[in-house]
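User: Sequence recovery, please. Input:
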């Protein structure tokens, strides 16, 4: 079986002036900076293709911010965007609330905080990693079918599911401090597979790092 790489791309900055934890809520669009980030990623991928990379498959979460992040890359590489529900944002009890500690720790929410290792306020980390890795495997196989040995796929997803996937791929515990996730806006977490379909390396990069200073990054979960 040929080798392949699956890139997990976090979406760009979201227009969210009220600081809402938007989770799976619809119609949260990219900000102007977020659109610039998406365009910069498209240029990054186009330059890699010019240098010989075979990026042949593009997938995005059904949420607006992921679809909008994928669009410039679709246009630059002449690829169709395949919508994949398995790479959607994590479920979260706090969705729709203002993302502040004062809000989260109100007495009415205490029951939801009973087990931070699962976590009890949303979708279990292990469930996120499982659905993401299933989608990754399908994308790997599709990329190989389309591009052969060394083919690459891009999956546009969300911070927490990407981070859970990386922790799982690296054999680390899934519970973590959310403030310490290495998964900035429009970052790439790249899963590199050998010819037996095993993940042999996880690479991380920030092609739009120049646009990160000053960017808002209210987490979706």
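Assistant: Recovered sequence (221 residues):
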């Amino acid at each position: 079986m040929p080798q392949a790489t699956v890139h997990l791309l976090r979406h760009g900055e979201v227009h969210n002036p009220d600081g809402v934890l938007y989770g799976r809520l619809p119609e949260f669009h990219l900000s102007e900076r977020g659109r610039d980030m998406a365009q910069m990623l498209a240029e990054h991928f186009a330059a890699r293709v010019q240098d010989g990379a075979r990026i042949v498959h593009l997938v995005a979460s059904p949420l607006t911010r992921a679809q909008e992040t994928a669009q410039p890359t679709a246009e630059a590489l002449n690829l169709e965007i395949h919508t994949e529900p398995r790479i959607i944002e994590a479920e979260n009890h706090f969705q729709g609330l203002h993302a502040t500690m004062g809000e989260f720790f109100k007495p009415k929410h205490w029951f939801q905080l009973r087990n931070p290792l699962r976590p009890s306020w949303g979708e279990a980390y292990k469930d996120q990693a499982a659905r993401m890795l299933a989608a990754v495997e399908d994308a790997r196989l599709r990329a190989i079918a389309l591009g052969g040995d060394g083919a690459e796929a891009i999956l546009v997803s969300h911070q927490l599911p990407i981070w859970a996937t990386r922790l799982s791929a690296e054999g680390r515990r899934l519970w973590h401090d959310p403030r310490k996730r290495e998964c900035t806006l429009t970052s790439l977490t790249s899963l590199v597979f050998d010819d037996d379909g095993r993940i042999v390396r996880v690479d991380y990069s920030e092609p739009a790092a120049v646009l990160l200073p000053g960017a808002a990054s209210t987490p979706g979960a």
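The chain has a mean pLDDT of 93.
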